[in-house]
Each structure stands twice: as structure tokens, then as C-alpha cells.
Amino acid sequence: QVRLQESGPGLVKPSQTLSLTCTVSGDSITTYDYWWNWIRQPQGKGLEWVGLIAYSGITRYSPSLKSRISISRDTSKNHFTLRLSAVTPEDTAVYYCAGGPGYLEVRYWGQGNQVTVSS
Questions:
Q1: What is the pLDDT of residues 94-110, one digit of tens each?
Q2: Which of 89, 99, 96 is closest to 114 using CA atoms?
Q3: What would the pLDDT profile of 3-51 be if each residue is shown by its tens digit?
Q4: Which one of 31, 59, 68, 84 has the lowest number of neighbouring Cβ atoms within 10 Å?
Q5: Which class for 65: exposed (0-12), middle (13-18), buried (19 or more C-beta within 10 A)?
Q6: Burial 27-53, CB ≥16 within 10 A → b, else e
């Protein structure tokens, strides 16, 4: 069974860089045709796709966040990491990692990590 677990701070100051890691168990993040996403949900709003890293290592980012985002991976630890720079209170949200077989096909979800941007 594939499990995803987010880890990272719950509070980040404005202008700092948010860093979240998703550790995957039960399968390898390099398994062919598996795609690993970051998705966020501000309180009271819908889900927003943030970006992804593929089994091959290629990345895709939301156009609205592209200038501030990077997603990387450590295959030896079977995890992938989101970095979002220059955060503002508008970046406050529950951040989920999610993934599965097929591009933008999400089968597995982490429990979510609440991130609040505040001084």
C-alpha cells in the first residue's frame, strides 16, 4: 500500500522560503509513469494544484507560482521536496502531497500539512 507523509514547519514568516517534504512508502518515486504532486487548499477555498515531479525527474509548475517554486527529489530517501520562496499570507493553506500512475492522476494522498504565513 502506498502511503505519503508530508513534513515541514507549520509557521513561516513573510518573505521566507517554505520547504515541505513528502516521504513515500510502499513504492518507489521512480516507478515508471508515477507522478508526484503538490496541491494546496486555503481555508474556505478549493484545491489548487501547485506542481509536480515525475518518475523521470521532470517537473511542472503552476504558472501562477512558477517564479517562486521548485520541486526536487532524493531517490535514496524516496522523498520529494517543495520549496516556495518569498511567501506571503496568501500562501497560507493546507499543503498536500499526492500522486499515482498517470499524468495528473491522483490516487494517493498525504494527510496534509497546515502552513501559516505570519509574522
A1: 999 999 998 878 999 99
A2: 96
A3: 999 999 999 999 999 999 999 999 999 999 999 999 999 999 999 999 9
A4: 31
A5: middle
A6: bebeeeebbbbbbbeeeeeeeebbbbb
Q: Is 86 left (phi over 0), alpha (psi -120 to 50) or beta?
A: left
Q: Which residue has the cell 516521504?
A: 23
Question: Could you read off the pLDDT of 38-90 as tens digits, one per residue?
Answer: 999 999 999 999 999 999 999 999 999 999 999 999 999 999 999 999 999 99
Q: Are 109 and 95 in contact (CB under 8 A)?
A: no
Which grid cell sits at 103? 499524468
Residue 118, pLDDT > 90, answer yes
Question: Which residues partner with 36 through β-bridges?
Answer: 53, 99
* CA gap 35, 51 in Å, rounded: 10
User: Residue 93's closest CA among 36, 24, 44?
Assistant: 44
In the structure grid, which three cell numbers stand for residue 107, read together? 490516487
Give the model's pLDDT for residue 59: 97
